[in-house]
Amino acid sequence: NKILNQMGLSLLGETIRAGTYKASVPSWPIKDTYHFRHLLHRFAAHVTTGVELSKHEEGCLKKLGNDCDAYLRTNAHGCFYYTQVLAALTDMLKRSGLPQVSDSCPAKTPKDHLLLSLGSPVYEFCLNPEALLPYLIKDRPLMPDVYNHRLKIDVTTADGEEWISTGLYLSPGMSTYMVMPTEIINKEWKIQIGCQTDDLHDKDELKRPPRVHERFPVTSEMMHVSNLWGGLIYLVAPPNTQVKGLEIIVQKALQEKFGWDAFKKVFAAYHHMRDFPDDNDTKMNLYAETFSQTVGMNLTGFFKAWGWPIKTATEEKLSQLPPWNDHPMIQ
User: Which 3 state secondary structure label does DSSP give 217?
Assistant: First the structure.
């Protein structure tokens, strides 16, 4: 890419399916083809001034969202065209905000899909994310922080990576610094913010943003991490790793109510289970039920607030437990 960049070209990590594709003909009107910057300009005018898009342009918005994400991740702040595109996207989001989606108010239009998908990358790469944040997250309640929280970890992994929960989380738009031990720097360890790692970009209806987690390779002793959507803080240990007694310091975060001991008890309960369900919804209900029984509180309201598909049967099973009414999702 360093060679190709001199000619205005870049190779991306994404690939396309093998096949025969028609090359664009220079004489074709630009409105009848796909041109990244032209369509971005048209979409910005559509969002800010109500300019109508053609059916062809609407059909290209999903590709535009993917291309915007890939383009922003080149992180080419020294390039004039990059800063111009980033400034245009930032200004557009400040004018429009993000669609406020939920179970009862999902995003169905190509416009709302694209706006939701742009929130995270624009926030991540813009030069002043704090100035943009109030336009993206409307409600940011003040919650008690913990400072310089020390964690000691022991982990042994097999052929797959393993998530290690810190018992801490970040609220939406919150950032923190983490002090990492030298033993794991540049050793394929990662910090992950958020537990929902599925990508919903291909869905026709969105009840939450399509991507709500972030991962950061551990490349230095002092790591700065954040996530527009917040979430639990995890360390991700690589396969075939064994460490003992490593200390990590999280300089500022929110304390997960039940702490790491509760997670260890839940994991222990899973070791004694048999016949795990195959479908994801049932797995999520089993986890919510197991966690609730472990801590002696009904957590279905908390998981539902995160968008989990909690079933009526699960709510009935846990109805005898006292509800968790002061969780951060309702503050």
Answer: strand
Token duo for residue 307 = 């968008």
User: Three-state DSSP class for 325?
Assistant: coil
What's the CA angle centered on 177, arms 172 and 179, to 5 degrees?
140
Per-residue pLDDT of the chain (331 residues; tens, 9 = 90+): 889 988 888 887 778 889 998 887 777 777 778 889 999 999 999 999 999 999 999 999 999 998 999 899 888 898 899 999 999 999 999 999 998 888 888 898 999 999 999 999 999 999 899 899 999 987 766 565 677 888 898 999 988 899 998 888 888 888 889 999 999 999 999 999 998 888 888 888 888 899 999 999 999 999 999 999 988 899 999 999 999 998 999 887 666 666 666 777 787 888 778 777 888 888 889 989 999 998 888 999 888 877 788 999 999 999 999 888 776 665 5
At 193 the three-state DSSP class reads strand
Largest CA distance in the chain: 71
Q: Which residues contact 38 (CB under 8 A, 6 or more apart)?
A: 30, 31
CA atoms within 13 A on the CB side of 173: 17
State how far the alpha carbon of 52 is from the alpha carbons of 44, 85, 214, in Å. Answer: 11, 21, 34
Collapsing DSSP to helix, strand or coil, 308 comes out as coil
Which candidate, 282, 120, 75, places its Cα nearest to that of 211?
Answer: 120
For residue 163, the surrounding DSSP H or E stretch is strand 162-170
What sign has the CA pseudo-torsion 220, 221, 222, 228? positive
Q: Pick from 55, 64, 7, 2: which is nearest to 31 by CA? A: 55
Whole-prediction pTM value? 0.72
